[in-house]
Amino acid sequence: MIVFTGVKKQYDDGFQAIKNIDLEIKEGEITVLIGPSGCGKTTTMKLINRLIQPTGGSIRIQGRDIASLNPVELRRQIGYVIQNIGLFPHMTIAKNVGVVPRLLKWDKDKVERRVDELLGLVGLDPDTYRNRYPSELSGGQQQRIGVIRALAADPDVILMDEPFSALDPISREQLQDELVRLQQELRKTIVFVTHDMDEALKIADTIVLMKDGEIVQADRPERILRYPANDFVKSFIGKKRLQSAGTELVAPELAPSVDDVMVEQPATAFPSRGLAEAVKLMERRRVDTLLIVDKNRKLQGTVSIYNVLDQYAEENKTVADVMRPVEHTVPSGTSLAIALQLMSAKQLSNLAVVGEDNRFVGLITRGSVVRHMADLYASGSNGGDAYASVIV
Amino acid sequence: MNADQPLFVRVYEYMADHSDELIGLIGDHLAMVFCGLALALVVGIPLGILCLRSEKLAAVILGAANVIQVLPSLALLALLMLALGLGFNTMVVGLFLYSLLPIIRNTYVGLKQLDRNLVEAGRGVGMSPIQLLVKVQLPLALPFIMAGLRVAAVIAIGVATLAPLIGGEGLGRVIYSGLNMRNDVKIYAGAIPAAVLAILADAILGWLQGRFKKGSHAAEA
Ligand SMILES: Nc1ncnc2c1ncn2[C@@H]1O[C@H](COP(=O)(O)OP(=O)(O)OP(=O)(O)O)[C@@H](O)[C@H]1O
Ligand SMILES: [Mg+2]
């Protein structure tokens, strides 16, 4: 267990980066520090391995005040994944991964075996990668190496500073999954910094939300979603997740509106377009209906592929000649529940959302509703129930 | 030797006739340069590392090395001769002093330009300051240090031709005796090998520098 008691950090230039933090980091858990850029996440993390000295308070690991420990020895017992990977470019992958064991004077064979084992652990073939240099690996592979370097000497505590930040969403999720899987076996005490709430929700046992050098809320993800401490936490979590957690604390204005769900750039055309052009556009956008708007984006009508094909032979006609008036629209800001009731009652396949002066702002389609729901389900927790009742 | 023949033929013949002597002088020349450079590395690299400790110290050390560098070489050698007497050692000291600045400066710059992340990573995995220096900082600064050595070597090969003035050996001997005897052929026979040595040193060290660069940033293609 790592315990912060009244920890402060003022940098040499007088900047108070950490203002009086009390925190308990539980053993065998992943604790995620999250917050906006500059809120002091990295600073908090570096205080743990004494890369930064606090200017007040104390930090204890397993009951021992780290100020009394030799910083070099301490760091060898704490795995550290640095914010920008920080692999040594002049060392091979094997050298990089084995760096702490070698500092700890393990014998050569043992280091080699450990390196191969770790490479295997993250799905990199030792024979292929052992002797490569970091620059010969992809970004995702480099980050994997960064992670296993921290694991090499089997430390109980591992600090990870935005270890997956430089990755594309797919590799990122893959590595998050890997981490969760590894953690199930290893049960390390992991302090993980991110500013991505999805990442935090996915991997955290405890989330510590920070702002301006202070802890705003520290709790289980589930509880943070259900009982956000204040508006900052709410806004950081984001509307959608709050709803999906079905919290009672959601303000009425947070109920989903059509604006959250609509397609903002649906296929539209000017009235002067020819019919062939209209068909082409539908083909390209893969839709069967176009909304016809004038230059001021005022909604004029709607044209379906059947209207167009009916009169396709007449070369001089434009979409203005074949369009139908739009019978149902909803104003921007309408609650989604009302829009869905309307669509269901009138058997509409889509519903235009308009602003002032009948200005077209977006389109609710069945697809967009499904996507919205998928987002809610995908972001985890017990989402959906609240929604299902709305939709039915 | 036929005075009617073109100059380059006469120079060639002179060099062919005196090849043993010339080779001996080249050896002397290189010996002085090697010793001077080796001393400069042994002293300059630690001074460069020391510069990293504080800006103030860096200003003092680099300033001093710079003063030495701007002294006219003849003046410096004359002063050294007054202090140390004639001979090989005096010349080595002169070359050492002349090579210091490029080596100190490049060591300093090479260490200073290092990615702060890497230094932090080194500290973070638990390297002591010495381990950090030996395992991370110096290897990564090596291409810079090599570049300094290259500059120093070219300068030293040039300055070493002044050796005969303070009782040293080397290719300067042929050049000065040519000057004294107003013998063009002799002057060329000393100057050409000296120039070739400088060019070769530049090329070889340049090649080495490229290799180190590759090593330290591992095929950064
Ligand atoms: N050496 C330093 N001297 C002065 N101020 C510093 C120093 N290092 C960091 N800071 C300041 O302390 C604050 C916290 O920095 P920190 O690196 O902990 O932020 P962070 O939460 O990790 O941000 P990010 O998400 O951008 O990595 C920042 O405002 C930063 O400018
Ligand atoms: Mg940070």
Automatic annotation (TrEMBL), chain A:
Molecular-function GO term, any one: ATP binding
Enzyme class: translocase
Pfam families listed in its UniProt record: ABC_tran, CBS
Keywords from the UniProt entry: ATP-binding, CBS domain, Cell inner membrane, Cell membrane, Membrane, Nucleotide-binding, Repeat, Transport
SUPFAM superfamilies attached to this UniProt entry: CBS-domain pair, P-loop containing nucleoside triphosphate hydrolases
Keyword Glycoprotein: no
UniProt cross-references to InterPro entries, sorted A to Z: AAA+_ATPase, ABC_transporter-like_ATP-bd, ABC_transporter-like_CS, CBS_dom, CBS_dom_sf, Gly-betaine_transp_ATP-bd, P-loop_NTPase
GO cellular component: plasma membrane
Domain CBS: 262-318, 323-379
Compartments (UniProt record): Cell inner membrane
Catalytic activity from the UniProt record: a quaternary ammonium(out) + ATP + H2O = a quaternary ammonium(in) + ADP + phosphate + H(+)
Self-association and partners: The complex is probably composed of two ATP-binding proteins, two transmembrane proteins and a solute-binding protein.
Matches recorded under NCBIfam families: proV
Family recorded in the similarity comment: Belongs to the ABC transporter superfamily.
Name listed for the protein in its UniProt record: Quaternary amine transport ATP-binding protein
Annotated source species: Cohnella zeiphila
Lineage: Bacteria, Bacillati, Bacillota, Bacilli, Bacillales
Automatic annotation (TrEMBL), chain B:
Superkingdom of the organism of origin: Bacteria
Record PROSITE patterns: ABC_TM1
Main localization category: membrane
Entry membrane topology: Multi-pass membrane protein
Pfam families for the chain: BPD_transp_1
GO process terms (BP): glycine betaine transport; transmembrane transport
Transmembrane segment boundaries: 30-50, 140-167, 187-208
UniProt keyword Transport present: yes
Domain ABC transmembrane type-1 span(s) in chain numbering: 26-209
SUPFAM superfamilies referenced in this protein's UniProt entry, alphabetically: MetI-like
Subcellular compartments: Cell membrane; Membrane
Keyword set, alphabetical order: Membrane, Transmembrane, Transmembrane helix, Transport
Key word Transmembrane helix present: yes
Cellular component terms (Gene Ontology): plasma membrane
UniProt xrefs under PANTHER family: GLYCINE BETAINE/L-PROLINE TRANSPORT SYSTEM PERMEASE PROTEIN PROW, OSMOPROTECTANT IMPORT PERMEASE PROTEIN OSMW
Similarity field: Belongs to the binding-protein-dependent transport system permease family.
Identification of the protein by name: ABC transporter permease
Species of provenance: Cohnella zeiphila
